[in-house]
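Many introductory courses stop at the sequence. We go one step further.
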Amino acid sequence: MKAFVYNVILIFALSAMVQGANINVPANYNTIQNAINAAVSGDTIIVAAGNYTENLLVNKVNLSFVGANAGIPAGQTRLDESNIIGYVKIVSNGISLNGFKITDGAQVPAGEKAGVYIVGGTSGHTIQCNLFTRTGAAPGGPDQFRAVINEFGGVSSLLIKQNKFIGWHTGVYLQNADAVVTNNVMSKNYVGMSIDGAVSVTVAYNSIINNGLEGIGIGPPAVTSLAIEHNCFSGNLTAVANWQSVEINAENNNWGDSTGPYNAASNPDGKGDAVSNNVDFNPWLAACCGDPLHLLPVGDLTNDCRVNFFDFAICARAWLSIEGDGNWNPACNFAAQDNAINMNDLAVFVSHWLECTSSECN
């Protein structure tokens, strides 16, 4: 019996270790750094709204940081912010930063001036739903502060999504990175994004607008794998500047005008943002759709930012089906509670009929 009880206790203890604990700031610890110091792998640090003037060293693996706006994309209406005034230096693996405001950044010892600074050789980070703001010289001129930067030693499995970067020298600066950058807004920076030595980088569905020098700049060493697609560029001095001699793929983007980007040699009649040489921009998108400033409306099943007869035809084929039927289509289950395509779903669909969020509709 004692052995049985011991085993039960051990199972519960191991389960708790795997799941991790919640640590609340300021309820449990008055600073975020004190919470980090007390944390162990797998813990979640929940930070209430308020100002936290701290320079943070994240040196524990697999920590999740949850701010007051976790899960709310930075381009949407948000609650009072969990505002970190300073930098976050990440030196361990598996860090998630979700729902914070990062203000101004600071000089990282033995590193760059940054909001989030990721040391080389780390992996498994998610930077999501954060608002990065700075009142520096951008977009009129550089002041060397980067919102998110990884060391030249590289980073792998980095996901940067649903953030907003405004007022920085560079919004996102990737060096020898394996990363996905998606659904972000990069606005009124000197450079929206810099990519040097892309190991495997995808930049997709971002709004990259009104940056003073470049929307995206690509530098050496040579690119291994880089895809720039389905982004919306507008108001940048140069949308994509490739400083390498190897051509990079930037097909299927919108450049701010249906005539495509301006390039003196290959598209002199383009009225959109300029692109440099060695940028494959053809074909391009005539309008913005699916980026943070032109979200897909409810009922848009063809991803064209419109709710119309094409979407209705898809749902008509699934009409009166239930989960498990051959014509069941979960995308049409807008009511989402009854696992059946019926009048509840039709009512939701009709409420969005002819809604259009494409830039062509503006």
